[in-house]
Amino acid sequence: MNKKKINVGILFGGKSAEHEVSLQSAKNIFEAIDRKKYNPILIGIDKSGKWLLSDDSKFLLNADNPKLIKLNQTANRVALVPQSNGKITNLSNNAETGSIDVVFPILHGTFGEDGTVQGLLKPADSPFVGAGVLGSAVGMDKDVMKRLLRDAGVPIGKFITLKSGEKIPEYKTIKQQIGLPCFIKPANMGSSVGVNKVNGQAEYLRAIKNALQYDTKILIEEYIKGREK
User: Fold this and answer.
1) Which of 20, 101, 205, 219 is most solvent-facing, going by the fewest CB within 10 Å?
2) What is the pLDDT of residues 131-143, one digit of tens each?
Protein backbone atom coordinates (compact mmCIF):
# COMPACT_ATOMS: atom_id res chain seq x y z
CA MET A 1 0.00 0.00 0.00
CA ASN A 2 1.45 3.34 -1.10
CA LYS A 3 1.48 6.12 1.42
CA LYS A 4 0.27 9.53 0.33
CA LYS A 5 3.14 11.92 -0.26
CA ILE A 6 3.42 14.89 2.09
CA ASN A 7 2.91 18.21 0.34
CA VAL A 8 5.76 20.43 1.51
CA GLY A 9 5.42 24.13 0.80
CA ILE A 10 8.95 25.47 0.29
CA LEU A 11 8.69 29.18 1.14
CA PHE A 12 11.67 31.17 -0.11
CA GLY A 13 12.92 34.54 -1.35
CA GLY A 14 11.51 37.33 0.78
CA LYS A 15 11.98 41.05 1.36
CA SER A 16 15.29 40.98 3.21
CA ALA A 17 18.77 41.81 1.93
CA GLU A 18 19.40 38.05 1.99
CA HIS A 19 16.84 37.38 -0.74
CA GLU A 20 19.38 35.83 -3.12
CA VAL A 21 20.87 33.65 -0.37
CA SER A 22 17.39 32.25 0.24
CA LEU A 23 16.95 31.48 -3.48
CA GLN A 24 20.15 29.45 -3.42
CA SER A 25 19.04 27.58 -0.29
CA ALA A 26 15.66 26.77 -1.86
CA LYS A 27 17.42 25.44 -4.95
CA ASN A 28 19.59 23.14 -2.82
CA ILE A 29 16.62 21.83 -0.81
CA PHE A 30 14.46 21.33 -3.89
CA GLU A 31 17.21 19.28 -5.52
CA ALA A 32 17.88 17.19 -2.38
CA ILE A 33 14.36 16.50 -1.07
CA ASP A 34 13.22 12.85 -1.16
CA ARG A 35 10.56 12.72 -3.91
CA LYS A 36 9.41 9.28 -2.74
CA LYS A 37 8.09 10.83 0.48
CA TYR A 38 7.53 14.47 -0.30
CA ASN A 39 5.86 16.53 -2.99
CA PRO A 40 7.60 19.94 -3.00
CA ILE A 41 5.43 22.98 -3.74
CA LEU A 42 7.46 26.10 -4.47
CA ILE A 43 6.21 29.45 -3.22
CA GLY A 44 8.60 32.29 -3.93
CA ILE A 45 8.25 35.67 -2.24
CA ASP A 46 9.53 38.58 -4.31
CA LYS A 47 11.28 41.64 -2.90
CA SER A 48 8.00 43.54 -2.61
CA GLY A 49 6.38 40.74 -0.59
CA LYS A 50 4.21 39.09 -3.27
CA TRP A 51 3.78 35.31 -2.89
CA LEU A 52 4.18 33.46 -6.20
CA LEU A 53 3.37 29.82 -6.90
CA SER A 54 6.35 28.77 -8.98
CA ASP A 55 6.68 26.17 -11.69
CA ASP A 56 9.13 23.42 -10.71
CA SER A 57 11.10 23.63 -13.94
CA LYS A 58 11.66 27.39 -14.06
CA PHE A 59 11.24 28.87 -10.59
CA LEU A 60 14.67 30.51 -10.76
CA LEU A 61 16.52 32.51 -13.39
CA ASN A 62 20.31 32.19 -13.69
CA ALA A 63 20.06 29.35 -11.17
CA ASP A 64 23.66 28.24 -11.68
CA ASN A 65 25.13 31.67 -10.97
CA PRO A 66 24.84 32.77 -7.30
CA LYS A 67 25.69 36.37 -8.27
CA LEU A 68 22.90 36.63 -10.87
CA ILE A 69 20.30 34.27 -9.42
CA LYS A 70 16.76 35.69 -9.52
CA LEU A 71 13.20 34.65 -8.74
CA ASN A 72 11.14 34.02 -11.86
CA GLN A 73 8.17 36.35 -11.43
CA THR A 74 6.05 34.97 -14.28
CA ALA A 75 4.03 32.97 -11.76
CA ASN A 76 0.56 33.27 -10.25
CA ARG A 77 0.13 35.37 -7.12
CA VAL A 78 -1.18 33.20 -4.33
CA ALA A 79 -2.03 33.22 -0.63
CA LEU A 80 -2.33 30.65 2.12
CA VAL A 81 -5.86 30.95 3.42
CA PRO A 82 -6.26 30.80 7.24
CA GLN A 83 -8.26 27.89 8.65
CA SER A 84 -8.42 26.16 5.26
CA ASN A 85 -6.25 23.13 6.03
CA GLY A 86 -3.37 24.52 4.01
CA LYS A 87 -5.24 25.41 0.84
CA ILE A 88 -3.50 27.72 -1.63
CA THR A 89 -5.66 30.35 -3.33
CA ASN A 90 -4.90 31.98 -6.68
CA LEU A 91 -5.43 35.71 -6.08
CA SER A 92 -6.30 36.43 -9.72
CA ASN A 93 -9.46 34.31 -9.71
CA ASN A 94 -9.86 33.22 -6.05
CA ALA A 95 -9.70 29.59 -7.16
CA GLU A 96 -8.12 26.87 -5.07
CA THR A 97 -4.87 25.75 -6.67
CA GLY A 98 -3.55 23.08 -4.31
CA SER A 99 -2.90 22.46 -0.65
CA ILE A 100 0.06 22.18 1.70
CA ASP A 101 0.52 19.76 4.60
CA VAL A 102 3.53 21.53 6.11
CA VAL A 103 5.45 24.73 5.31
CA PHE A 104 9.24 24.67 5.10
CA PRO A 105 10.38 28.31 5.49
CA ILE A 106 13.71 28.86 3.70
CA LEU A 107 13.63 32.60 4.30
CA HIS A 108 16.86 34.26 5.39
CA GLY A 109 17.01 37.41 7.48
CA THR A 110 14.16 39.77 8.33
CA PHE A 111 10.56 38.86 7.44
CA GLY A 112 11.50 35.19 7.63
CA GLU A 113 13.89 34.14 10.38
CA ASP A 114 12.62 36.72 12.86
CA GLY A 115 9.27 35.16 13.77
CA THR A 116 7.14 37.20 11.39
CA VAL A 117 6.31 34.35 9.01
CA GLN A 118 5.99 31.94 11.93
CA GLY A 119 3.48 34.33 13.49
CA LEU A 120 1.53 34.38 10.23
CA LEU A 121 1.43 30.58 9.97
CA LYS A 122 0.47 29.95 13.61
CA PRO A 123 -3.07 31.45 13.53
CA ALA A 124 -3.53 30.00 10.05
CA ASP A 125 -3.14 26.52 11.60
CA SER A 126 -0.39 25.74 9.09
CA PRO A 127 2.28 23.39 10.52
CA PHE A 128 5.81 24.53 9.74
CA VAL A 129 9.41 23.39 10.09
CA GLY A 130 11.77 25.04 12.56
CA ALA A 131 11.53 27.25 15.63
CA GLY A 132 8.35 29.01 16.72
CA VAL A 133 7.64 32.72 17.04
CA LEU A 134 9.57 33.43 20.25
CA GLY A 135 12.56 31.26 19.43
CA SER A 136 12.83 32.78 15.97
CA ALA A 137 12.53 36.36 17.22
CA VAL A 138 15.04 35.93 20.04
CA GLY A 139 17.49 34.04 17.84
CA MET A 140 17.33 36.72 15.18
CA ASP A 141 17.95 39.72 17.43
CA LYS A 142 21.55 39.20 18.50
CA ASP A 143 21.33 41.93 21.14
CA VAL A 144 18.34 40.32 22.88
CA MET A 145 19.84 36.85 22.46
CA LYS A 146 23.11 37.86 24.11
CA ARG A 147 21.35 39.54 27.02
CA LEU A 148 19.22 36.44 27.67
CA LEU A 149 22.24 34.14 27.48
CA ARG A 150 24.22 36.41 29.79
CA ASP A 151 21.39 36.56 32.34
CA ALA A 152 21.12 32.77 32.20
CA GLY A 153 24.78 32.45 33.13
CA VAL A 154 25.97 31.32 29.70
CA PRO A 155 29.45 32.68 28.82
CA ILE A 156 29.34 35.12 25.89
CA GLY A 157 31.76 37.42 24.15
CA LYS A 158 31.90 41.08 25.16
CA PHE A 159 29.66 43.37 23.13
CA ILE A 160 28.31 46.90 22.86
CA THR A 161 24.95 47.73 21.27
CA LEU A 162 24.61 50.88 19.21
CA LYS A 163 21.33 52.26 17.85
CA SER A 164 20.87 54.59 14.92
CA GLY A 165 21.09 58.21 16.06
CA GLU A 166 23.09 57.43 19.20
CA LYS A 167 26.57 58.84 19.75
CA ILE A 168 29.18 56.51 18.26
CA PRO A 169 31.64 55.28 20.90
CA GLU A 170 35.16 56.56 20.46
CA TYR A 171 37.56 54.15 18.84
CA LYS A 172 39.83 54.12 21.88
CA THR A 173 36.85 53.12 24.06
CA ILE A 174 36.15 50.12 21.82
CA LYS A 175 39.82 49.21 21.85
CA GLN A 176 39.83 49.23 25.66
CA GLN A 177 36.46 47.59 26.33
CA ILE A 178 36.11 45.13 23.44
CA GLY A 179 39.63 44.75 22.10
CA LEU A 180 40.95 44.31 18.58
CA PRO A 181 40.20 42.90 16.18
CA CYS A 182 36.46 43.16 16.70
CA PHE A 183 33.36 42.51 14.62
CA ILE A 184 30.65 45.04 13.76
CA LYS A 185 27.36 43.69 12.47
CA PRO A 186 23.61 44.40 12.17
CA ALA A 187 21.64 43.02 15.11
CA ASN A 188 18.94 41.52 12.89
CA MET A 189 20.61 40.04 9.85
CA GLY A 190 21.99 36.64 9.07
CA SER A 191 24.71 35.15 6.86
CA SER A 192 27.54 37.68 6.49
CA VAL A 193 25.51 40.62 5.18
CA GLY A 194 26.71 43.87 6.77
CA VAL A 195 29.35 42.10 8.88
CA ASN A 196 32.84 43.59 9.04
CA LYS A 197 36.00 42.60 10.88
CA VAL A 198 37.73 45.70 12.24
CA ASN A 199 41.47 45.70 12.78
CA GLY A 200 42.17 49.42 13.04
CA GLN A 201 40.74 52.91 13.36
CA ALA A 202 40.43 53.49 9.60
CA GLU A 203 37.97 50.60 9.31
CA TYR A 204 35.92 51.42 12.40
CA LEU A 205 33.57 54.16 11.14
CA ARG A 206 33.22 52.49 7.73
CA ALA A 207 32.09 49.27 9.39
CA ILE A 208 29.52 51.11 11.53
CA LYS A 209 28.15 52.96 8.51
CA ASN A 210 27.90 49.73 6.54
CA ALA A 211 26.10 47.83 9.32
CA LEU A 212 23.59 50.67 9.81
CA GLN A 213 22.52 50.30 6.19
CA TYR A 214 20.87 47.01 7.14
CA ASP A 215 19.49 47.66 10.62
CA THR A 216 18.80 50.48 13.07
CA LYS A 217 20.58 48.50 15.80
CA ILE A 218 24.09 47.10 15.46
CA LEU A 219 26.58 45.20 17.61
CA ILE A 220 30.26 45.75 18.23
CA GLU A 221 31.54 42.35 19.33
CA GLU A 222 34.66 40.84 20.78
CA TYR A 223 36.69 38.69 18.42
CA ILE A 224 36.99 35.11 19.66
CA LYS A 225 39.40 32.95 17.71
CA GLY A 226 37.79 29.66 16.77
CA ARG A 227 38.05 26.79 14.35
CA GLU A 228 36.83 27.06 10.78
CA LYS A 229 36.21 24.17 8.42
Assistant:
1) 205
2) 999 999 999 999 9
